[in-house]
């Protein structure tokens, strides 16, 4: 168990290519922290700097209060699970699990006991005498997990571990990993986890807190709930949530949002939350926050496509030249009638307004950005 | 971020010191590696460099020193060597080599392509055993078949001709090339051939118009390797060619060491340079194909 | 895949003809000939096992030739492979000029089998040749390379090792195809450079090592050009490798039957060693397969 701190961490390649721009992050002891972002946002690079697999250009990483910049990976109390498992192909599962302990010269009995314990936790006992090439994807990933677990590290590092698995397996492994974390916490060992993924669903379902990154910068660090309900900027708003939040450009005037020829009254609640009145604004509406109405203030749009999802319908509509996506119940959809003109009313309590020039969310409760 | 006016903390100093140390160690490691590589490379290549330089020296100068630059470069070695001590010039011997190589390479390319096509794209009875025979031939030491082959060629009346050198290769006798082409062809998708089949092409048309172009790089490798090996081939011509007027350059070179007691080294070395030049030129022009061909074997294990 | 069952055979025809005429029949014929005495003039005379009997009991030359051949193979092959692996390991780095070095080390392999190089070698190791000049420059006495039996074999060995480039290129390709994340996992596991090399890199190279080992061994047993041109098998038959012996018996003395017997003994040795290598490979060769890592 160890807290991890990144202070002003930077990574520069070839003296000119800066990919990590001085990030600060405090990860609490025992926390499950997810680093998420699109490809190229440098989340893996950051993870690898924590692991010691990449040199740190500037800034500092501390693990358990100790500065680890100059320590080799094996001395940092970390263990890592790789995207492609990185199992030693010529060693059986047992050998893969015990390699680190064997190098450290631990006594045979101790090694055997550790291997058995880990195999039991991950349910890989029948696989102990197999070679990696005889394992399925899920089994291999569990062995990789076991190899990390057996070291009893202070910090677990995961580098997109589920990307190589098919969708169904991914879902079950997600659960297995979070269950394991909870189980270890209950037993008292409480390991800290830093988990890198590009999949926001994984991030939202697994993390205690999520660090959203883009192009080597941290966009926001918050709990899943906060990220969903109070995104600090346009990037986070568009990144978290499926289907994506509707980000509509327009202008703010008085208490209204102006979109083409339509005007939408924002309500006093939202107006009170605004910390500024940006001339160029972006209105953020989650698809699930629309209701189909036949009268009252609403946006009028033309239905272009409807995707039937079972008990929900995803509606794609054109409004003043912009595409709006909304999610309504199937019954509600059926009830709207035959016309392809629909009236959508967003819930004013969940609206967000962003300043187009810097992407900031100017409509947060208390007007501040959650850290 | 704030990298201009931030005061240096102890941590920052330690960072820089560590980075500097890492850079030093990298430098040392690089220096050691490069020295080793250059040293070995120099030792390996010096004989060749020396060879070229020596071919432009006079006979006495060759034994005078180890340097490779001739004091007064002369083409005497080349001129005299070209004349040889036979009624023929070296040009004749190069021509003979060419006459051996060209049909052999063409024969190899055609027959090995056909055979590879069969193994990679068709199913037929006994296929596994027959492919096994390719591997067996690949590993078979030629020494066991050489004598009866000689007897066969003698009975056919092919002694002292180029036929024994052409025909086995024209019948896909070089298992190495068959194997190489089969492996390459197996790694190519069959989509285009299937499309051709739907378009109504028969197997031969598919082979010529679709498969052969796809085999391009591998075929080039095959031809290059066969060219080099045939240029260097000594034992084959030694056994089968007895008339001097048919000698390829490999036999001609040997002749030049045989006949003179007091070696006119500068002539011999000059002709040696000439005999390896085509191989070197071909190699450098098509390096990529050679190294790729061999490396592929390493990658697939 | 076409399933017209016999169309494939149409394309195999050249191979099948060649296989039968130039491989299968000669193979069996040479076995037959080894039990005969045949001088190409009259027809072969059946002599039973007498060729083999003479070979194993009374033929001093054969003893010498066999010994020399075995020494040659068992010294060159390991040396050449070890050196190839060593250089490949050094090259397996983010070096500039890696292509230059790879080419430079590979060039001797393409030329090495040629007569030109054999001729060059003969000069290099002659009494006033380059090698002795270099030795003299560092203060040692010149060595009698071709007159002294022990030294002569060394020159041939050196020629073969000089051509390590082809094996090196294969090793280098294999080294570069090893997944980098394996090294990272090993570093997290606490393995230093040496441990990583022996426990991670080397095991993954075993298929390629095996391939090179077998190929080099089979080639080494059939070495002809070098000894023939450089030392003519001497001095005192110290470089009289078996292929030379076979050549002289068959094409100089026209003892086809006896030569065939020697050829078959050589073949048997190669086959046995190859089979041993294959059988032992189960113990030490790890095929990673192409599924994971």
Structure overview:
Chain A is built from ten helices and 20 strands. Chain A is α+β, with helices and mostly antiparallel strands and 371 residues long. Chain A folds into two domains: 4-229, P-loop containing nucleotide triphosphate hydrolases (Rossmann fold); 234-367, RNA polymerase II/Efflux pump adaptor protein, barrel-sandwich hybrid domain (OB fold (Dihydrolipoamide Acetyltransferase, E2P)). Chain A has a six-stranded mixed beta sheet with strand order 6-7-8-3-9-10, with helices on both faces. In chain A, a hairpin with a 2-residue loop joins strand 17 and strand 18. Chain B is mostly helical and 301 residues long. Chain B has helices at 10-54, 59-62, 76-83, 90-121, 127-139, 143-156, 163-170, 175-186, 191-198, 203-232, 235-240, 249-259, 265-285, 287-300. The two termini of chain B are 48 Å apart. Chain C has a single domain, classed as MetI-like fold. Chain C is built from 13 helices and two strands, in the order H-E-E-H-H-H-H-H-H-H-H-H-H-H-H. Chain C has helices spanning 7-33, 50-58, 60-91, 98-112, 115-124, 130-137, 149-162, 165-176, 180-188, 193-221, 225-231, 242-252, 256-284, and strands spanning 36-37, 45-46. In chain C, strands 1-2 form a two-stranded antiparallel ribbon. Chains B and C meet through helix 1, helix 4, helix 5, helix 6 and helix 7 of B and helix 1, helix 3, helix 4, helix 5 and helix 6 of C. Chain C: Belongs to the binding-protein-dependent transport system permease family. Chain C: It is found in: Cell membrane.
């Amino acid at each position: 168990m160890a807290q991890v701190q990144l202070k002003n961490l930077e990574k520069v390649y070839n003296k000119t290519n800066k990919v990590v721009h001085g990030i600060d992050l405090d990860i609490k002891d025992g926390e499950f922290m997810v680093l998420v972002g699109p490809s190229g946002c440098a989340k893996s690079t950051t993870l690898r700097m924590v692991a010691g697999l990449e040199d740190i250009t500037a800034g500092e990483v501390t693990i358990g209060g100790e500065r680890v910049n100059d320590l080799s990976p094996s001395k940092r109390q970390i263990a890592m699970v790789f995207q492609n498992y990185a199992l030693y192909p010529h060693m059986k599962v047992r050998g893969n699990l015990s390699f680190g302990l064997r190098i450290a010269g631990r006594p045979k009995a101790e090694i055997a006991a550790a291997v058995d314990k880990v195999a039991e936790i991950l349910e890989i006992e029948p696989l102990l005498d197999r070679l990696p090439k005889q394992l399925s994807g899920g089994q291999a990933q569990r062995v990789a997990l076991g190899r990390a677990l057996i070291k009893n590290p202070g910090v677990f590092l995961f580098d997109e571990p589920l990307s190589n698995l098919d969708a169904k397996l991914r879902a079950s492994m997600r659960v297995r990993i979070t269950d394991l974390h909870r189980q270890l916490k209950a037993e008292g060992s409480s390991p800290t986890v830093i988990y890198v993924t590009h999949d926001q669903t994984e991030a939202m379902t697994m993390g205690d807190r999520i660090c959203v990154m883009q192009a080597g910068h941290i966009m926001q660090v918050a709990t899943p709930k906060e990220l969903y309900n109070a995104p600090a900027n346009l990037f986070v708003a568009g990144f978290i949530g499926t289907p994506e939040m509707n980000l509509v450009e327009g202008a703010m005037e008085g208490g209204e949002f102006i979109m083409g020829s339509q005007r939408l009254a924002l309500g006093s609640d939202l107006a009170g939350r605004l910390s500024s009145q940006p001339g160029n604004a972006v209105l953020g509406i989650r698809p699930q926050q629309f209701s189909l109405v036949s009268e009252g203030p609403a946006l009028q749009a033309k239905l272009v496509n409807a995707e039937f999802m079972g008990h929900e319908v995803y509606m794609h509509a054109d409004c003043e030249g912009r595409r709006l996506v909304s999610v309504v119940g199937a019954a509600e959809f059926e009830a709207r009638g035959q016309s392809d003109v629909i009236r959508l009313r967003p819930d004013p309590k969940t609206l967000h307004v962003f300043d187009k020039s810097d992407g900031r969310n100017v409509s947060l409760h208390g007007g501040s950005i959650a850290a | 971020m704030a990298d201009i006016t931030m005061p240096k903390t102890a941590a920052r100093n330690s960072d820089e010191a560590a980075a500097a140390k890492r850079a030093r160690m990298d430098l040392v490691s690089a220096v050691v590696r490069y020295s080793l590589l250059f040293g070995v490379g120099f030792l390996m290549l010096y004989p060749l460099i020396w060879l070229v330089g020596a071919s432009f020296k006079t006979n006495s100068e060759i034994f005078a020193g180890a340097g490779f630059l001739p004091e007064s470069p002369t083409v005497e070695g080349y001129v005299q060597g070209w004349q040889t001590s036979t009624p023929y010039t070296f040009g004749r011997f190069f021509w003979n080599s060419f006459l051996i190589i060209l049909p052999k390479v063409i024969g190899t390319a055609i027959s090995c392509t056909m055979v590879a096509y069969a193994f990679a794209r068709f199913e037929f009875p006994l296929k596994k055993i027959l492919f096994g025979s390719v591997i067996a031939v690949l590993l078979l030491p030629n020494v066991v078949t050489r004598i009866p082959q000689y007897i066969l060629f003698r009975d056919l009346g092919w002694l002292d001709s180029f036929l024994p050198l052409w025909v086995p290769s024209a019948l896909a006798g070089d298992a190495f090339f068959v194997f190489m082409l089969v492996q390459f062809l197996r790694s190519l998708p069959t989509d285009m051939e299937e499309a051709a089949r739907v378009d109504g092409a028969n197997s031969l048309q598919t082979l010529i118009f679709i498969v052969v172009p796809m085999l391009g790089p591998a075929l080039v490798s095959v031809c290059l390797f066969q060219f080099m090996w045939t240029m260097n081939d000594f034992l084959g011509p030694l056994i089968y060619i007895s008339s001097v007027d048919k000698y390829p350059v490999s036999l001609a070179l040997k002749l030049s060491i045989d006949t003179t007691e007091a070696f006119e080294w500068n002539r011999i070395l000059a002709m040696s340079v000439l005999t390896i030049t085509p191989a070197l030129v071909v190699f450098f022009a098509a390096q990529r194909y050679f190294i790729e061909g061999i490396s592929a074997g390493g990658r697939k294990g | 895949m076409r399933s017209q069952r016999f169309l494939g055979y149409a394309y195999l025809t050249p191979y099948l003809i060649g296989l039968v005429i130039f491989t299968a029949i000669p193979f069996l014929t040479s076995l037959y000939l080894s039990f005969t005495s045949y001088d190409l003039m009259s027809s072969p005379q059946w002599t039973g096992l007498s060729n083999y009997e003479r070979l194993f009991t009374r033929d001093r030359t054969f003893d010498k030739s066999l010994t020399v051949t075995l020494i040659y193979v068992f010294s060159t092959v390991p040396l050449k492979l070890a050196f190839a692996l060593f250089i490949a390991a050094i090259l397996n780095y983010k070096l500039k000029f890696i292509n230059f070095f790879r080419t430079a080390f590979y060039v001797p392999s393409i030329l090495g089998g040629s007569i030109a190089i054999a001729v060059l070698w003969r000069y290099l190791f002659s009494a006033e040749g380059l090698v002795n000049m270099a030795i003299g420059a560092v203060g040692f006495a010149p060595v009698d390379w071709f007159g002294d039996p022990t030294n002569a074999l060394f020159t041939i060995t050196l020629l073969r090792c000089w051509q390590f480039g082809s094996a090196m290129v294969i090793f280098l390709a294999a080294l570069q195809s090893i997944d980098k994340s394996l090294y990272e996992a090993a570093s997290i596991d606490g393995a230093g450079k040496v441990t990583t090399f022996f426990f991670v890199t080397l095991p993954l190279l075993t298929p390629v090592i095996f391939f090179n080992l077998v190929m080099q061994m089979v080639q080494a047993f059939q070495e002809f050009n070098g000894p023939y041109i450089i030392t003519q098998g001497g001095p005192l038959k110290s470089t009289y490798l078996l292929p030379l012996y076979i050549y002289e018996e068959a094409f100089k003395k026209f003892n086809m039957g006896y030569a065939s017997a020697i050829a078959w003994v050589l073949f048997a040795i190669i086959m046995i060693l190859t089979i041993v290598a294959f059988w032992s490979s189960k113990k030490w060769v790890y095929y990673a397969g192409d599924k994971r890592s």
